[in-house]
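Forwarding these from the shared drive since the link keeps breaking.
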Amino acid sequence: MSHEEELAEQARLIAWLQEQLEHQRAVNAELRRAVADLARTFQESLAAAYEAGESGDLEAIRRITRANQQHWQSYLQQIVAAARREK
């Protein structure tokens, strides 16, 4: 392999690595957003459940619990989808 061919191969490899790095950064950003949304929603629902519990509103606790379960499922699906795109 000539010197020019080696340089061309190295340039292709660098371009591919840069593309992979950008892809990984995008996936990581998506995962960070999903985790931040999950944490924020969890804290909000925890506070709402606490308030409902303090007031004795069992129906509100049930609604909050069901909504929280749906949020968890949604965020888990986001995380799984992002992890699949990572490969």
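-- next protein --
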Amino acid sequence: MLYMILGQDAPDSLERRLAVRPEHLVRLEALRDAGRLLLAGPLPAVDSPDPGSAGFTGSLIVAEFPSLDEATAWAHADPYMKTGVFHEVLVRPFKRVLP
């Protein structure tokens, strides 16, 4: 089943985000390579594809996992969560309708 993972950035976490981004991407690439990643990306804090020093408010991931428990465990093991980039992560089942 698909699950939506919404990570909410902690205040002033841009430097930490940039520092651990390579580790975060390795985990996403593994999901992609396994054919389980539908989409993933950051949420810019301002209306711009490159928010610069404004940074991000979080990240959205939609991926396939065997269960809600496994999706939640994966999300909580992410470097962004472990290093305090995310102060909160929300994991919910996702039903794809379109496209």
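Strands lie at 2-9, 37-44, 56-64, 86-94. The chain has a mean pLDDT of 97.

- D.
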